[in-house]
Amino acid sequence: MRLRIIAIGRLRNGPEKDLIEDYIARFNRTGRQLGLGPVEFTELEDKKGGGKTAEGALLSKAIPTSAAVIALDEHGTLQDSPDFAQSLVRIRDQAPSELIFVIGGADGLAPGVLARADAKLSFGRMVWPHMLVRVMLAEQLYRAASILAGGPYHRV
């Protein structure tokens, strides 16, 4: 199952981008044998400054109708890493064309994007910078693949 992260905003060169690239490379190596991946990134930018509504339109246009969608949202479901790994397996086994993770901009996701999501995932009750959420998601994807492959990365 192909995975894609669609995010508002462009990530510049720096430590966050380096971390994302490292975790995604690890995920792609480990996940391939599990039928997961590769992960691709799509970055969208509202150059006209239309806010959450305009960002929502860009995101909605980028999401294929046949894809499963998980929205990263502070009001979403809290999961531990093993539960997240099992969620990936359940979605993979339902055989959608791809699984898309959606990350909004600084103001979050538009209501239409949240309504389109098959699930909403939260990384805790605290609000995280949307650029840091990308790093956290990349790490959790790799951790999930490691858990599913029986690797030593995740320690209980």
Explain what the structure shows.
It is built from five helices and five strands, in the order E-H-E-H-E-H-E-H-E-H. The model has no long low-confidence stretch (mean pLDDT 94). The protein has one domain: 3-Layer(aba) Sandwich (Alpha/beta knot), CATH 3.40.1280. The chain has helices at residues 15-32, 51-62, 81-93, 111-116, 130-149, and strands at residues 2-8, 39-44, 68-78, 98-103, 119-122. Helix 1 (15-32) runs parallel beside helix 5 (130-149) and helix 3 (81-93) packs across helix 5. Helices cover 44% and strands 22% of the residues. A five-stranded parallel beta sheet has the order 2-1-4-3-5. It has 156 residues and is of the alpha/beta class.
The shape, in one word, is globular
CATH class: Alpha Beta
Give me the count of strands.
5
Architecture, CATH level 2?
3-Layer(aba) Sandwich
- The Rg value, from CA coordinates, equals 15 Å
Fourth-tier CATH superfamily name = SPOUT methyltransferase, trefoil knot domain
Helix count from the secondary structure assignment? 5
Question: What class do helices, strands and sheet pairing give?
Answer: alpha/beta
Give the count of structural domains.
1
The CATH topology assignment is: Alpha/beta knot
H/E element string? EHEHEHEHEH
> What characterizes the major β-sheet?
5 strands, parallel
Q: Identify the strand order in the major beta sheet.
A: 2-1-4-3-5
- Binned, the helix content reads 40-55%
